[in-house]
Amino acid sequence: MNIEEFRNYCISKKNVSEDFPFDKQTLVFKVMGKMFALCDIHFFIRINLKCEPTFSDELREQYKGITPGYHMNKKHWNTVSVCSDVPDSLIYKLIDHSYHLVIKSLPQKIQKTL
Questions:
Q1: In this predicted structure, what is the pLDDT of residue 106?
Q2: What range does the domain containing 97 cover?
Q3: How many Cα atoms within 13 Å fall on the side-chain side of residue 86?
Q4: 8 Å CB contact between 26 and 92
Q5: How many domains does the chain have?
Q6: pLDDT-based confidence at residue 28 (cuts at 50, 70, 90)
């Protein structure tokens, strides 16, 4: 997976915005203002994605390329190395998982619009 594929997939989701809230190189994707994915645009070697804690534990045991979230809450975020043993098909599923976790955290009224 390259950064264009990652960006295009994230931005194609409903009500997603992108910006650089931290610095000029950390691209953040949000759904309804809440983060679900981020990456470094200059060194696209890993991405951070939100993940359900027990699923995170399973993934970290199974893949060397999935580790606790770098500079994130280690319980709720994973860092996924894009050039590792993690297949692109799983990365796409993890992006979906992250997106849906954030949607689940939104008020019911907003969830229904999504």
A1: 83
A2: 3-113
A3: 25
A4: no
A5: 1
A6: very high
